[in-house]
Amino acid sequence: MEHSGEDRPAVVIRVVAVAAVGLALALGPQLARGLVAPLTALVVAAFAYAALLAVAEFRGWRLLPPRVATAIDGGLVLVACGLTGGAESIMVALLPLIVIAASVRGGAVVGRLAAVVAGAGFTVGSVLGSDADVPLADRWLAGAWWTGFLVAASVLVGALVQMLERQLEAAAVARSEHEAFLEERDLRARLLAAQQARLDGVRVVLHEFRTPVASLTALSADLAADRLPGPSRAVATRLLAEHAVHLRDMLDGLADVAVTDGSPIGRVRARVVPLSELADAVLDAAGVAAARRRPSVEPEGAAVRCDPQRLRRVLTNLVENAARHSGDAPVELDLRHADGVLVAEVRDRGPGLPPGQEGVVTAKGVALGERRGTAGLGLWIVEALVAAMDGELSLEPRAGGGLVAHLELPLPAP
User: Full-prediction pTM beyond 0.85?
Assistant: First the structure.
């Protein structure tokens, strides 16, 4: 069955009112005016009616529409007024509750109509049910006074209901405007974030162009001036080819920024990469002199399947930082692959990091030491790439001085 539509406060008030009337009659039998039997029957019937509506409310049954229940309540109260003294009946105190309920449930017009009807009914009860010693004028006066009181109560309750409705409408409008503001703010934030991501992508690509372009410039100048002997020319030619491939990959990444969501790391292009070749390419790209190189690959001949452009960008940035901060000291690059995990360590003998700066230095725009004032993108790029590859990067002080960049990446074997 459907819900009755009654609210629980009304149900509780009805039960309490009937119980109070029964208690009053029990404590003051004189209120019955000699009509104990009919009043007792009325109270029992009213209590049964109130209890039935209470059970229906708590179980969610539909027995009576709320307006019908209010009308029955009013009829019972008027009958009780007529049987307990008419103009002098204390039961009249229940009539304002009936009018208030009608005003709340039906609005101002229904409430005022209920007040007039209740007042007229009480007037009839006063004229017909009052004791013989009560003058007729007093009976009419009591009916008129309570009718006016009930109408005034209905007007007041109607005004309060209208005020509450206006406040609820204003609150609904304010809530709607607030929700619209929040949606607009969220949309603006998403647009700004997307724009910032695209700008970051462009900055990343431009930053990554710096090393290969500088190397290409130097190699091209040496080759054009014929300053390189035969073996060196072969190495330079190989480096030119590697840088060209790297630049092509970077341009692909720039294209990704233009056509995707603005991610600064581009799309994944996986292929098989021998770790020994990767180590040489990273050291070449970072411009580490042969005398300072300390590469190590375990196991010998190991290879992984990965996006070489991403992995090379990570390692090149780390090796560049190590070479730049360690003077003429060697730069160690260890690559170990086992159980589907690539462990890479870049070790240097530079000044290391100030205490507490291990996490700060990877933030965008942060540059420490002699690099203060630069763009500060290198380690931020590394952090973003490592996160995109589901890896972990830690920067730790090295025993004896320097820094250890420890990187772990889940990369399968070919």
Answer: no
